[in-house]
Amino acid sequence: MTAHLRISTFSLKDTLECGQFFRYTKAMGTYLVQSSNRLFSLWQKGDVLFYEGVEEDFLIHFFRLDENLDSILKEIDRDLSIHQAIQKYRGMRLIRQDPWECLLSFLCSSAKSIPHIRCIIECLCRISGEKISFGTYLGYRFPEPTSIQSEVQLESVRAGFRTSYLVKASQCIDRHQLLALRDLPYREARQQLMNFRGVGKKVADCTLLYSLDFLEAFPIDTWIKRGLEKIYFSGRRTGERKMEEFVSNHFGPYAGYAQLYLYHYWRNHRS
DNA sequence: GCCCAGGGCTATG
DNA sequence: CATAGCCATGGG
User: Fold this and answer.
1) Which pLDDT tens digit goes with each residue over A66-125?
2) How far is the CA of A236 from the C1' of B2 (A)?
3) What is the model's pTM?
4) How many CB atoms lie within 10 A of CB A77?
5) How far is the CA of A57 from the C1' of C7 (A)?
6) Which nucleotide has the shortest C1'-to-CA distance from A239?
7) Pick from A5, A16, A177, A211: most CB atoms within 10 A?
């Protein structure tokens, strides 16, 4: 029933709770996770990850456990700030989400607090009507693109001005098309995503980084913007163009991991 | 009643 | 390009 997996340089807590992923709950040290039509539980003790209701292969893919995180962290460890973040949260990994679920999640994210984003996504899944169970746990599947057809249908989700974004995305996207973006250069893939209503640079970068293996993507939200200005631009107001150029040069091809660590660090040490 | 929340769109310098 | 006002909703 309960299986386990030995892992190094992995923090389940930080990986799930750092804001990159929304469909999880926590009860007494055990996390209940929903992703890619799965509902499973897991918990960590030291360097052992225990899990139920999911295959080992999926976990390795989902948590990127076959990726050498130590060597990546060594590469982005370029200054005191990122060094402190790495020291505090070493083991936090990017999650490889389903692209469709990831895109819709961040379509819901604009000008919303994280708890409310999670709330909206759960309401959205309830719309699908397809239940999923594991032991005594119950949940709803994430709706497929074809199952979201009108704004009226999403009334109970109360997503506000984001509702039309969700419907339009559903009308012209199939999952296959999103996965195919992985074969494009970063800039082109981002531009493709930005052709959808409601997808700007930030949402596009979140989708590319959290679900499509573009580790150079560096989502710039309000927290990251404030942090970058304070730490790397002497507190001066700075345009996004300059910021993009800086993080790309400063952190290199794994800049996305730097973003993950800085975001989590700056949010948990508000100063 | 006010302000803010993992933004984006649109109309303007 | 950079900025301002607006967008719908909930919580502090």
Assistant:
1) 999 999 999 999 999 999 999 999 999 999 999 999 999 999 999 999 999 999 999 999
2) 28
3) 0.98
4) 16
5) 43
6) C2
7) A211
